[in-house]
């Protein structure tokens, strides 16, 4: 029987709903807010909680993987130009590692919480969002393809 774990996470109110497994990633951010993928573990320095590299794009109304946008920022070179060799190199590696483009592989379900709790933690890079709890089965997704 699959193990079911519930985790409370914070999502931007404008984030799109999670698509069905196998559908194209729409940047809902659920998997990266639930826990970091292997690349996210490296840049976040932890195996639990929201990935440090997750970015919210208010313009696109979706989450983006910072390791595909400007990875040098998360590797200690925030001033590197977006087209710098380091960014290009790491972006290529990260794209392969997170299997960008293969569709949503997150076995997660989002359930809206009844009321927000001011004491609950949220992603440090995002403004106050809505609260959502996730029932997570086995496995996590890797995604947020810009
Ligand atoms: S896909 Fe990107 S943002 Fe998501 S957990 Fe992995 S490294 Fe972090
Ligand atoms: S891979 Fe992650 S960010 Fe992309 S749609 Fe699935 S749960 Fe959302």
Summarize this, please?
This protein is α+β, with helices and mostly antiparallel strands. The chain contains 4 helices and 5 strands. It has a 3-stranded antiparallel sheet. A two-stranded antiparallel ribbon has the order 2-3.
Layout of helices and strands:
Blueprint lengths: L4 E7 L18 H5 L3 H7 L9 E4 L4 E4 H4 L15 H13 L10 E5 L17 E7 L10
Antiparallel strand pairs: 1-5, 2-3, 4-5
This protein binds iron/sulfur cluster (2 copies).
Report on this model:
There is one protein chain. The protein is built from 4 helices and 5 strands. It is α+β, with helices and mostly antiparallel strands and 146 residues long. The longest helix is centred in the middle third of the chain and has 13 residues. The site of one iron/sulfur cluster has 14 residues, from helix 1. This is 4Fe-4S ferredoxin-type domain-containing protein. It comes from Roseateles amylovorans. InterPro entries: 4Fe4S_Fe-S-bd.
């Amino acid at each position: 029987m699959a193990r079911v774990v519930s985790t409370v996470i914070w999502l931007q109110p404008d984030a799109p709903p999670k698509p069905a497994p196998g559908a194209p990633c729409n940047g809902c951010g659920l998997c990266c807010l639930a826990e970091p993928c292997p690349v996210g573990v490296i840049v976040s320095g932890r195996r639990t909680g929201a990935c440090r590299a997750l970015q919210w794009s208010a313009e696109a109304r979706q989450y983006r993987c910072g390791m595909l946008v400007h990875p040098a920022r998360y590797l200690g070179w925030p001033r590197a130009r977006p087209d710098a060799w380091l960014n290009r190199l790491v972006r290529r590696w990260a794209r392969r590692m997170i299997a960008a483009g293969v569709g949503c592989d997150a076995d997660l379900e989002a359930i809206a919480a009844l009321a927000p709790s001011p004491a609950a933690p949220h992603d440090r890079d995002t403004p106050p969002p809505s609260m959502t709890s996730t029932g997570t089965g086995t496995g996590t997704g890797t995604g947020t393809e810009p």
